[in-house]
Amino acid sequence: MEAPIGILTSGGDCPGLNAVIRSVVRRAIGEGVPVMGIRHGWDGLRDGDIEPLTRHSVSGILPRGGTILGTSRSNPLCDEETIAKIKGNWKKYEMRGLIVVGGNGSLAAARDMHEKHGLPIVGVPKTIDNDLRGTDYTFGFDTAVAIATDAIDRLHTTAESHDRVMILEVMGRNVGWIAASAGIAGGADVVLVPEHPFRISTIVKLLNARRKARSSFSIIVVSEAARPHPEEDFLSEETKQMLYDERHLGGIGRQLAREIERETEMETRVTILGYVQRGGTPTAFDRILATRFGMRAVELVLEEKWGRMAALRAHEMTDCSLQEATEGVKELDPELYRTAEMLFG
Ligand code: F6P
Predict the structure, then answer these.
(1) β-bridge partners, 282
(2) 129 catalytic, yes or no?
(3) Would you say the pTM of this structure is higher than 0.90?
(4) Which atom of ligand 1 is nearest to the CA of 178?
């Protein structure tokens, strides 16, 4: 029998994971190569929680959110014992290569497992944040933007009815891709992103100008990691530690609302969109992208191009090194931010 390909999904879940799994299984089986599904990220490789994936087991999963394999944020390099167990199971199952579907953290771990421990690994870029380098888009991002845009549309009608300022806090970690994209698509009046620390005085001026021009309401989209400019910082050190804790970002929307109400006396409400952005069915764009990534990943394994990641560049399916993909983060495109900014007010 041909040596199988292993696949695991790691890090936060994201719409389109099942589309990748299905694509990998369909493509590999088409080549006569079996696929083994590893459950709950690296934990499954450590514990031997591994099962064959068949055409039957991936049937009907294309539109489903989440991942049929389960996921975890476990680090395979956390200690020597874990590394030894992973290597032991790798030998036992005699797999020809491993496809790791993950975001920044998971693919950095995949890079090190390949470079330092010799595991034959290829990557697939997954994250709603769109912050991986080497690829124009990660799958999951388009769905998150669609969900955030829908939320802005809904907030518009309630904001208008009550003459309120509505703040929508979105995910995205330390980059503003989701906020800027949804802000443009939803017609937000202000978009605040981590790449551009904001001045509360500018926001207040803008809200007052809108009120004067008889716009009865305003919509502000804020990234979970957006920060006030140091010259107009209204947050205490303690609050900042809480809001910008890398393990769990979030809460700037509430602080901003308090400050706006204090400065303008406008009634201000906050919606924190949270995990809704990661749940449910992927958009057609994400299904297609995830499917193309899955196909490319199988090709990389068959060509033994270890340490590479499937990537999309200018609409073309290609690949880049895991090293390039995980060197820092891909910040928000300045042109996209300028577009959002020109529509402020
Ligand atoms: O990286 C994806 C993401 O949803 C971020 O946007 C968010 O900050 C983080 O994951 C939340 O992580 P967790 O699932 O560990 O709470």
Answers:
(1) none
(2) yes
(3) yes
(4) 6
